[in-house]
Amino acid sequence: MRAFLAGVRIQFWLIRRQPDDLLTLCTIPFTAVIMLSVVIHAIRPDLVTNALLAPALIGLWGFSIGLAGEVIESERWVGTLNPSLAAPTEMHSVYFGRIMAVMGLGVIPLGETWLLG
Amino acid sequence: MGVRVIDLTRSFRKGKGWRPKGPEVTALDGLTLEIPDGEVHGLLGPNGAGKTTLCKILSTILLPSSGTAEVLGYDVVADAHEVRRRIGIVFGGEHGLYWKLSARQNLRYWAALYKLTDAEGDHRASELLARLGLTAKADDLVETFSRGMKQRLHLARGLIGDPKLILFDEPTIGMDPVAAHDFRRLIGELREEGRTILITTHDMDEAEEVCDRVTLIDKGRVIATESPRGLAQMSSLHRWVEAETTADVTHLPGVVAVESRAGFVRIKTDGDASARRVIDFLLDNGVRSVRAVPPTLEDVYLDLIGARGMEV
Ligand SMILES: Nc1ncnc2c1ncn2[C@@H]1O[C@H](COP(=O)(O)OP(=O)(O)O)[C@@H](O)[C@H]1O
Ligand SMILES: [Mg+2]
What we know:
- The complex is a heterodimer.
- By secondary structure, chain A is mainly alpha-helical.
- Helices cover 84% and strands 0% of the residues of chain A.
- Chain A has helices at 2-17, 23-41, 48-78, 81-86, 91-116.
- By secondary structure, chain B is α/β, with parallel strands linked by helices.
- Chain B has helices at 51-58, 80-86, 103-113, 118-131, 147-159, 177-192, 204-210, 228-234, 272-284, 297-305, and strands at residues 3-13, 24-35, 40-44, 66-71, 74-75, 87-91, 165-169, 196-200, 213-218, 221-226, 239-244, 255-261, 264-269, 289-293.
- In chain B, strand 9 (213-218) and strand 10 form a beta hairpin.
- The longest helix of chain B is centred in the middle third of the chain and has 16 residues, at 177-192.
- Classes of the chains: A mainly alpha, B alpha/beta.
- At the A-B interface, helix 1 and helix 4 of A face helix 2, strand 6 and helix 3 of B.
- The structure holds adenosine-5'-diphosphate and magnesium ion.
- The site of adenosine-5'-diphosphate has 12 residues of chain B, from strand 2 and helix 1.
- The site of magnesium ion has 3 residues of chain B, from helix 1.
């Protein structure tokens, strides 16, 4: 659990310094607007929920997949992969924490679209 | 026993991808080495000798191809977890830190990985920052640090888990003289605290000064393990004579080489008798000062490994 929290914490620290990961969050309302206008133009009110949910899920998904795929590569690049492997904590809990931190942030788009709706 | 390595072999396959098809390279070739508790042990050898590979195996990052390695009585394969709890690693260079975090945040993160609680981690981070003279910069981003400061932070990171054994892989590479001096003092302190230290370096003066014993390795094999002084005596090496003179000694028998610099000459001879002959000659021919000096670790290194430093 401590490893998991360490992962969550460092991910928040990192995101605060390089918020480019959060760029997707900014695009979500706009995607939602596009989707909505399509749905409204087609006069399909039954699809409004989908139009709102889809951008949020895309954001959430893209965001977490991106980080999950990147974390090992970036650790290697930064040179922290070797020392992490020599540390007495199983790194998957730490990385899981980092990914969950991002997932947690990914819930924001859900809120965003909900506000829009 | 701090480290016990028996007949350790590790080979790599060159090439790219998941299962490289290229030729096999043997990085470690039946290496055997013992380091008692509390010793500062130097690992010397040319590039590609296998020093980093050995450090990685001892720190459980790499698996051996064959042979056994024990650290503090625990096998690096079977008891990897026990090994990890007791060691610290400092692999040289500027890598291995999060540049977008502050020094303190870096240390707090690693403290958590070494299973310290938040309070313990904070305490230990402050302690180490003070010890390495980084307190004033503790909350600055690492990307604003000079190279020397990053290296000090590395050292702090390596010490965060209060390790019994510390592996240093070329820790002083690129350090300025003052930093290197401080580093030697730190090694002295760590030895006083009873920690075992394995240090790879290219700096012979450093090895001579800080190491209790050194091991010369080449092509993954041990060439010799000795105290720096013992190594110099053991090898059938040339004696050196240092003199302040303008006399020409190149014609004397037994003189292998003469280096002169600003009225000061260093004469390499092929043994004690020749050295004595050179000294006698100089005393007869006007000399301001003269002394015989034992070969330095660097001489021994060059003699045993040869001047192959540029080969890969
Ligand atoms: N990951 C690797 N893949 C392939 N070959 C490697 C790898 N790591 C090291 N080697 C090879 O193993 C040998 C020893 O390397 P290394 O242990 O880094 O030497 P040193 O640290 O003494 O300079 C070299 O010939 C190097 O090319
Ligand atoms: Mg190396």
